[in-house]
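Hi R.,

As promised, here are both runs. First protein below:
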Amino acid sequence: MTSVLFICHGNICRSPMAEFLFRDMVKTKGIASDFSIASAATSREEIGNGVHRGTKQKLNSLGIDCSGKTARQVTKRDYDTYDYLLVMDGQNTRNLMRILGDDPENKVYRLLDFGKKPRDIADPWYTGNFEATYNDVMEGLEGFLLQVQENKI
């Protein structure tokens, strides 16, 4: 089983969007049992809060339910639990490394490192553009799944 933890600043916008889109993607492909999928935050700001309404609306428009999801902070123990820790931007990477200390097994990647053009995923908390976030997340998820299936990472 491949375990994946999606990580952003607050765990209310981008990382839960990636978590639930990836769950839906692997379910649709009939390979959901091959994956363990979750999401977390690098900060403590939103711990216990539900998914942001913009992310919730986007997921609901696709028929994906994210009810019950609440923000949690990533822990050092998560490094041992997950095969991949996929962050949304460079700042998330820096904050994650403060928590982990190191990445000796090369498990930490930006999600769009698997996209056509590696880059950060803008935070819709600030941009308000959940559609752009969705497009970037999907690009990263499709590239990531392809790499995993081809055993390239």
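And here is the second one, sequence first, then its structure tokens:
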Amino acid sequence: MNNNETGRFLGFVLLKHRSWDKDSFFKRLRDNWNIEPKDLTNAKGDENIFVFEHDSMHISLAFIPAPVPEHEAEDNAAFNFMWRDAVDQVSQHTAQIVVSVMGGEDKLESALTFVKVCDSAIDDDTIGIYTNGIVYQSRMYSEMAQSIKERQLPILDLVWIGLTNAGNGKFNGYTMGLENFGKYEIEVIGYTTNPSKLLDFLTGITGYVIGEDATLKDGETIGFTADQKLKITLSDGVEFDYKTLKIEYPY
């Protein structure tokens, strides 16, 4: 696990124009997610910065009429294999809303609140949501967020599951965002089967880890059937510069 703070959820809502319809945002927050901001104030008297409390969580939003510096959002958008023209689209953003959710007694509830706040910030002017080291297409992010209303976890909004080409017909799969829950990121190295099967595999494990607050440990095994025992190994990351959990893939 790297040294980033856990239990804090941070993201950037990328906007086409240098304006933000704050009233519409708060209306969607109330109407769509039944979140009524408590003790809503403008931080330091700045009309573009809002802070409020909700169920013991501290939530802040800051509108910045400038793009994310140093092309950081564009560089990370390139890793979204589900969005073909991500880099071109993201390069058009001219402003951002910085969203932060921290505190709260339960990390999962804080994470779900973060998704609800980001979803409420999405409108026709939104290009994407930059969080978990990736830029999500706004439509995709919002569609996944709706699963909360069906009492399901929006796994890919909470934790990004990525794929990279490892050469020789092999691929690596990995998670980004488990560290926010105080967990090690997970990698599956050198698989050769259908990529969609690996995505389903990692989605299932990720849902178990964050849904059950499970802690996977070096040297143990995990399985989805009574007979399945997949080895777990903690070692230096392949896609990361810190230690990750490698899980054996059931070929």
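A quick note on the second one: The mean pLDDT is 94. Let me know what you think.

Best,
J.
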